[in-house]
Amino acid sequence: MTVIVSQPTLESRVDDHKQRDGCEELVLDGGFVVPATNPSGFEAPQNNFYGNSFRDYYAQTERQKTVEEFYRQQHINQTYDFVKNMREEYAKLDKAVMSIWECCELLNKVVDESDPDLDEPQIQHLLQSAEAIRKDYPDEDWLHLTALIHDLGKVLLLPEFGPLPQWAVVGDTFPLGCAFDESNVHHKYFKENPDSKNPAYATKNGIYQDGCGLENVMISWGHDDYMYLVAKENGTTLPYAGLFIVRFHSFYPLHKHGAYAQLMNEQDKESLKWLHVFNKYDLYSKSKVHVDVEEVKPYYQSLIKKYFPEKLRW
Ligand SMILES: O[C@H]1[C@H](O)[C@@H](O)[C@H](O)[C@@H](O)[C@H]1O
Ligand SMILES: [Fe+2]
Ligand SMILES: [Fe+2]
């Protein structure tokens, strides 16, 4: 499946003279090459199965009310101090010991309230995105596995891992410690965030410097940062771009709108190219047509064996 969707040109905000036209070959990650064109012929669906365009946060549907209420709570409660505490708590990795596949199976129990396009159990989303990207990039096995694991951090919603409320696990992410960019969905709810009253966080860069690198930015806490931490601390051999995708795939203000781009360093800018590739499959593979879990399991287990230890600390 190839998803052909034009991405907004982030470089127009990052770097005025360099246009991203998808025609040049990009060499990243010490040898991984982003192919110049999409390899096969799948067209991205225009609408999700509710009949709305993807990521339409203003459609008049029942589901939208849940989604908007989700963002109200997320924008009020995610503060700089909250994220700092969460990072410390979850860095302990003392919640569980299990394999990647066991975690995939746990996601059978998880439904994401922030997502206007999908209300299926999350294991289907993992397999749908991984299978879609596998068809178009058959040789990039690390990318298939990255897709499989990218949302595993949603286990934070389960009792053994907190449980944390939805607003602390899912939804788009954004930096704390600087002004909230208007490209964040339902931006108006940030008015009620206590950080909005802190003058140190009120300017475009707040406490950060241009080019400081995303790894030095406090990003709202959730499944991205948690899964990044789990993968890294358990010694995964996935390439850097895979870890970057896991860590920043919900950072739509940056990868879709180019906001906060001045905070990136050179390595972030390189990895972002792969995140753009990945994002199409994450978003447009969402479907009511289920992947047969048992059929694809052996393939993904072989990848897990290649890139992860058998048991991980969570
Ligand atoms: O609702 C979705 C969902 O929670 C995804 O897993 C996340 O990555 C997206 O950014 C978010 O908008
Ligand atoms: Fe996600
Ligand atoms: Fe996802």
TrEMBL record:
Enzyme Commission designation: 1.13.99.1
Pfam families with a match to the protein in the record: MIOX
Keywords: Ascorbate biosynthesis, Cytoplasm, Iron, Metal-binding, Oxidoreductase
Any one GO biological process: L-ascorbic acid biosynthetic process
Compartments where located: Cytoplasm
Reaction catalysis annotation: myo-inositol + O2 = D-glucuronate + H2O + H(+)
One annotated Gene Ontology cellular component of this protein: cytoplasm
GO MF annotation: an example: inositol oxygenase activity
Annotated substrate binding sites: 55, 112-114, 154, 171-172, 249-250
Cofactor binding summary note: Binds 2 iron ions per subunit.
Organism: Turnera subulata
Sequence positions that bind Fe cation: 125, 150-151, 223, 249, 282
Protein name: Inositol oxygenase
UniProt pathway annotation: Polyol metabolism; myo-inositol degradation into D-glucuronate; D-glucuronate from myo-inositol: step 1/1
InterPro entries on file: Inositol_oxygenase
Gene designation: MIOX4_2
Cofactor(s) of this protein: Fe cation
Top-level taxon of origin: Eukaryota
Family, similarity comment: Belongs to the myo-inositol oxygenase family.
